[in-house]
Design goal:
The protein is built from nine helices and 19 strands. It is an alpha+beta fold and 365 residues long. It has one domain: Chorismate synthase AroC (Chorismate synthase, AroC fold). The chain has a five-stranded antiparallel β-sheet. It has a five-stranded antiparallel β-sheet with strand order 9-8-10-17-12. Strand 15 and strand 16 form a beta hairpin. It is globular. Bound molecules: flavin mononucleotide and the ligand C=C(O[C@@H]1CC(C(=O)O)=C[C@@H](OP(=O)(O)O)[C@H]1O)C(=O)O. Flavin mononucleotide (FMN) binds next to helix 9.
């Protein structure tokens, strides 16, 4: 199949599917000497886990992770780290009657066109559940980055047309930790939850926007051509199911301004070069400039909905309709937050090693 790997030196390869035996990741290129145990990964997986509130899929999974290799006496030893989560609440019954009917908005038709032999149960490897692998890789990347005081935090900024007020990035974590919609603006969060529940009640779904902020990254990460830091971040984020747009900094809004209005002007504070504004989202010419790195993703409404929709029967080659049953997220945004953080963490960890900020073999702080 190919295409299951992210990162060049810090490489994360994921495997597994929604209704198969297990899902996991193999991380190659993590330097030796990083303290790591299952709890470091579990903490992140718990933030992604399904079945935790009325605004997530009711599929009940513990998502308990087991580290199979790559650590010795509580630290990474430079060998491939393999970690696995077994699928427990597997129930493909809802997919039996629709196996020849591609779901509008989901990956079914594309996968059948490309591979022919296709695991139709829950989209197989096309399921959002495979993002367990992203989160495993990202948890290790985050742990590595924390050693260098680099932190990555995501939050929901919009659901449907409801927009959150801007909040001090330092306060996002405390405000989103206990909040099921992962929005730091408490008033907007309440309205968002209401909107998600209304859509769910109707058998429909809603989309939104998630922002990811990297703080503490040094200037000098990235490459000037092709493997630009912004290009690699966009690649990683677009690799998550349901993501239809990526913005860095001001993003699509740059079209509305003159350069004199949005160029980030430089100044010096306590011997450090900074910029007055951060419209470039911390990346200039493909390389980080030491300001916070800011990416935003547009997440589409969950494709599997129970309202009737038009589709085709690929066996009889006749037009037909579909009503999707089963267990689905009425909105993907809250659960995509840890996945997006993980994807960005993998790219930043990879570039930290590539640019020489982290030794590729052993941790030297
Ligand atoms: C965390 C997460 C959870 C998801 N949950 C669902 C779901 O419950 N039902 C569904 O139809 N799609 C869900 N998706 C979205 C599909 O996986 C995605 O739309 C599908 O793979 C098609 O890919 P595309 O939207 O990128 O074109 C989820 C995605 C993610 C990342
Ligand atoms: C189980 C998860 O999300 C699943 C993502 C998903 C999809 O089509 O993407 C469809 C549903 O799967 P199933 O029909 O197999 O229950 C969701 O529950 C998970 O993320 O852990």
């Amino acid at each position: 199949m190919g295409g299951n790997r992210l990162g060049k030196i810090f490489q994360v390869t994921t495997f597994g599917s929604s209704h198969g035996k297990a899902i996991g990741a193999v991380i190659d290129g993590c330097p030796a000497g990083l303290p790591l145990d299952a709890n470091d990964i579990q903490r992140e997986l718990d933030r992604r886990r399904p079945g935790t509130s009325e605004i997530t899929t009711p599929r009940k999974e513990e998502d308990k992770v087991e580290i199979l290799s790559g650590t010795f006496q509580g630290k990474t030893d430079g060998t491939p780290i393999a970690a696995i989560v077994y699928n427990k609440d597997v129930d493909p019954s809802a997919y039996e009657s629709i196996k020849y009917k591609p779901r509008p908005g989901h990956g079914d038709y594309g996968w059948i066109s490309r591979y022919g032999h296709y695991d139709y149960r829950g989209g197989g490897r096309g399921s959002g559940r495979v993002t367990i692998g992203h989160v495993i890789g990202g948890a290790i990347a985050k742990k590595l980055l924390e050693t260098f005081n680099i932190r990555i935090i995501g939050h929901v900024t919009q659901i449907g047309r409801i927009k959150a007020k801007r909040i001090d990035p330092k306060r996002i974590e405390e405000h989103t930790l206990e909040n099921p919609v992962r929005c730091a603006d408490e008033k907007a969060a309440e309205e968002m939850i209401k909107l998600i529940l209304e859509a769910k009640e109707k058998g429909d779904s809603v989309g939104g926007i998630v922002e990811i902020i990297v703080s503490g990254a040094p200037a000098g990460l990235g490459e000037p051509v092709f493997s630009k830091l912004d290009a690699d971040i966009a690649h990683a984020l677009m690799g998550i199911g349901a993501v239809k747009g990526v913005e860095i900094g001001l993003g699509f809004k740059v079209a509305e301004y003159n350069a004199s209005e949005i160029n980030d002007e430089y100044y010096i504070r306590e011997g450090r070069i900074r910029t007055l504004t951060n419209n470039s989202g911390g990346i200039i010419g493909g390389i980080s400039n030491g300001m916070p790195i800011i990416a935003r993703i547009a997440v589409k409404p969950t494709p599997s909905i129970s309202l009737p929709q038009r589709t085709v029967n690929l066996k009889s080659m006749k037009e037909t309709t579909i009503r999707i049953k089963g267990r689905h997220d009425p909105c993907i945004c809250p659960r995509i937050v840890p996945v997006a953080e993980a994807s960005v963490a993998i790219i930043i960890a990879d570039h930290m090693i590539r640019a020489g900020f982290i030794h590729p073999c052993k941790i030297k702080t």
